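**Polypeptide and fold**
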Amino acid sequence: MPKICLILIFNTLICGAVEPKGGFRNYSLLGAAYENIDFTRTNLSDLDSPIYLKFEKPFLAIESNIDNEAFQSAIVNLFQIYNGRSFVIILNSPGGEVPRMYSILDAIDSVPNSNVSAYLPKNASCASACADVFLYIGSRFCETGSKIGLHSVIRQGKPSKEATKEMILQLLSRPGSQVPEKWLAYQYNQGVFNTTKMTYYSCSELIQAGIASNAD
């Protein structure tokens, strides 16, 4: 397939050799996915440098220019265009919709898991669906003051036991899963997922548990 180049809203030349899911018409959606690129750290022209993706907003369709189905296509296509490069997923979000989170996992699964790392910047708070993304990725780093938060899936303002079980099974059974199973099972048995109240784990606690490495 011939290489194609696009000029998006960032006045940046984007080149790729992968046809998006659904054909080239879906390239109009890529702008929304490109909003997550941290251009202060990413050098698109340097093929040896990582792609830094920053998720700071809630994982909600209302916070984006596209709906959940279009977001899934856009974010997977973005990963495919830069397949072969490493990705650093910078997480500092309160979480949000489970389908949105699954779309991010679909994108991660579309590239070798050794090429993806999760990063919590200083004082970041990565909760709920954001924490699930963090735990899903095998290579995890955190800076001082950062934390993740876990709780049950919420349905109609209440904890949903069945939806929570389904979410955990998805995290564990997906082909690219690198979730720390024993650690997550321990938190489950402690009742962390039985309540909507958030249980937080600091960067130092994550490092001590072998869940993350120190990024300071």
Remarks:
- Residues 68-81 form the longest helix (14 residues).
